[in-house]
Amino acid sequence: MGSASKEYDFLCEIGLSSHNLGNYVGGKWLGNGPVVSTLNPANNQPIAQVVEASLEDYEQGLKACEEAAKVWMQVPAPKRGDIVRQIGDALRSKLDYLGRLLSLEMGKILAEGIGEVQEVIDMCDFAVGLSRQLNGSVIPSERPNHMMLEMWNPLGIVGVITAFNFPCAVLGWNACIALVCGNCVVWKGAPTTPLITIAMTKLVAEVLEKNHLPGAIFTAMCGGAEIGEAIAKDTRIPLVSFTGSSKVGLTVQQTVSARSGKTLLELSGNNAIIVMGDADIQLAARSVLFAAVGTAGQRCTTCRRLLLHESVYDKVLEQLLTSYKQVKIGDPLEKGTLLGPLHTPESKKNFEKGIEVIKSQGGKVLTGGKAVEGEGNFVEPTIIEISSDAAVVKEELFAPVLYALKFKTFEEAVAINNSVPQGLSSSIFTRSPENIFKWIGPMGSDCGIVNVNIPTNGAEIGGAFGGEKATGGGREAGSDSWKQYMRRSTCTINYGNELPLAQGINFG
Questions:
Q1: Cα–Cα distance, 349 to 324 (Å, whole number)
Q2: Mean pLDDT throughout 213-235?
Q3: pLDDT tens profile 266-302
Q4: Is 65 among the residues known to form the active site?
Q5: Which of 176, 300, 303, 447 is an active site residue?
Q6: Alpha-carbon gap, residue 125 to 478, rounded angstroms
Q7: Which entry of 52, 116, 266, 396 is annotated as an active-site residue?
């Protein structure tokens, strides 16, 4: 491995070594692109080397994927579901190793690393049941001896571009559904988490090989922007799922739309928790701590704005300030750590720059606000007292920085919640049925996730995940998200001998 430390010994249990081919193309591991080192964000030391994809590797992979799609889409959906079930079982067998790798390479604490892999396993289970429920509608026809129905067929190939903060969960939301819907998957993992991409793909590849299926059903590549651009431009990929910043997501959307493709976007979040005067203060404070500090503030659903009713403002902040000072910062693999490092040195620099901008706009640091000196990318969990009108509050700083904002009325709180460009997740803490139903109704939160008495993060896989406005409008994981991965046909069948026309038209 890249270090003599025994902490990396477990990587051989999931098929990794000190030098890894980063691309599974046409059922084979290869790599003709740049060689990169993946780093441990706790100390910025190398873990291992990975050979990324070249554009020639990409083209080879897409040609093989096209051929595999012709096979996979003809496999009955419940049989496809059984393959996904086996993938879930393979992940279960390596759950602890994969979770440990995720914590090592991404930086989130071990409990969250294992939890993320479990989320993919849960998605596999969900998709297995879904494979027997890809139902269309039978529609009454106005014409005698005619039948109307809906058919759902595979798109062919689905491109999945994932981000560093959830390097395997987002894959699960997309790939598990795409596969049971009859699509092949082309996955480009985040450039800074290639070992997770490789380890996950090795398990999928073993399942495909064991079942004598083309390996190109699942194609994975490690690489940078040029591979992502190739996916966005490729007319052979009718649907591209992209997770990342709003800026890059808009570019992906424009590129895919220019070729009449479809996008599924999961972009920035600027999520708020509202604490009303009648809220359970202890429940709210515990929820805010997890929502704001979990994953070092690098979840798209991280709570970034805390809206406190003036009657409980001081009380809630007092509890939070006490809790924040007890947060253990350190190695994400060590027991008791609650706050691991930010993912890259650049993220740490962005945190420091962000704090300076916040101060320049009138923000008052109540706790934290500093980077931790040392070799890792550690920063202090931070609470800022600031006006909701400050321009910086409208932006997403991808770090454990929480803005404390004061309000007087429910209507004012909703207006502040809805005042930002992003629209991913939101939550209110209240005991009032009136406020609850206003909050989830048409005059309430404008987000895709609207919670009550729980944090903004930690969504279950059974519901559709996604947001509105600059968050992108995509929906992944549960509910009826599967419909985005299929092509709907309305079919009218004439089983009689006459040709009556719709709307009673008589044409000669």
A1: 22
A2: 98
A3: 999 999 999 999 999 999 999 999 999 999 999 999 9
A4: no
A5: 300
A6: 11
A7: 266
